[in-house]
Task: structure prediction
Amino acid sequence: MVRLLFRVSSFAALCMGVVAATVDSIASVSASRVVLTPLAAAWQDVSPQSLPAFQSIVETQLGAASWIAFQNSILPQPAFVIFLALSLLLWAIGYKRPSPAGRFAA
Result:
């Protein structure tokens, strides 16, 4: 059941990454240059009130230094890269390895 949760979360992150990449590609074609939307800008566009709420949660649970590290390393990255990396990570956690004995082993 937990693997299913990770797989569904991975699929959701993959869908968000594809949407973010599509938006960036459309913006790149219309601007005739490469446009990469940072995660912070995409987050502000989708849900502006949740970013300060997430900041307060991270600062109270993990400390202010962790928020500064997150703000300086993750938020400036392109949104589609973060979502696709998150999708890969969640898929790897939820991956079920094939049985080494084979398909028909008891």
Q: What stands out?
A: Residues 2-31 form the longest helix (30 residues). The chain is about 75% helix and 0% strand. The chain has a mean pLDDT of 94. The chain has two domains: 1-36+78-95, 38-77.
